[in-house]
Structure prediction request, 299 residues.
Amino acid sequence: MSAQIAHRKRVFSLFGYRTGVAAHWFVGVWCVLLALLWGCGQRRAVDNSEALRAYAEQAGAVLSPDAGGGASVVEGWSVLVAVVPTNREEDAEAMLETVRSAGLGGARVAMHNGRRVIVYGSWDDPGAEEAQRGLAAVRGLQIGGVTPFAAAVMIPPAAPAGAKDEFDLRGVKARLGDDAVYTLQVGVYARGDFQKPSEQEIALFRRSAERAVAELRAQGEQAFFYHGPNRSSVTVGVFGEDDHDGSTRPAVESARLRALRERFPHCLLNGEGLMETVQTERGPVKRLQPSYLVAIPKQ
Prediction:
């Protein structure tokens, strides 16, 4: 019995999007903070209030959402407090000591885009209440009558070890050839309200999809991720024309594809089942959205 989709909640297309934009850092302004915290170059005497005000005026350009993002070795989402201008370990430790003495006892040194940075906190979800309280604490920190970190932002966690190029669905045809036609979509990471996600949400979706793929790979599954501009998808398996004949109803599928559908019967949204309404000969029926084949992109 055929069924036509009449209404779907939170269902998203997979292809036709480009990857995210690489992050850029403006390092020069950090010498102002460097001068405030532990002296820039060989100068010993600095006017803390003036340095803080100068930093506060420029912090928006340095710590704006467009400046964040990209890969990092931070474990969990963290608040970016400062970038170490010299990128030297001893300078990072000196800055860390001063930042902690200023009231951020939980601050630590980490790496972000190959640079040493000072970060605060670690959370799985940047939108969680505890994470937002941590961000507010950093932004509201007052030193010398000003709030130098008022423009602080969250930076995403590191990509998992499994997040390799070979796991990117875009490269499958280049490696396996034109016989790689279909893959089974089993998960989507995206907003559920069709609204445009923030940069932080996009980064979270990508990290989540990559982690899911890494876990599936560890279980022996041939899993892939696909990153769009607003969502990320998880698929399993690679199939050719011989595995799926859609010219008949129901479609004729290979034993290998049927077995994979049995292991992955549903397409999950953010790790949870997604209810949809389908129109059948007996009227509308609600069901969990099943996993489904998608075409493997050429690039």
About this structure: The chain has two domains: 30-155, 160-295. DSSP finds seven helices and 14 strands in the chain.
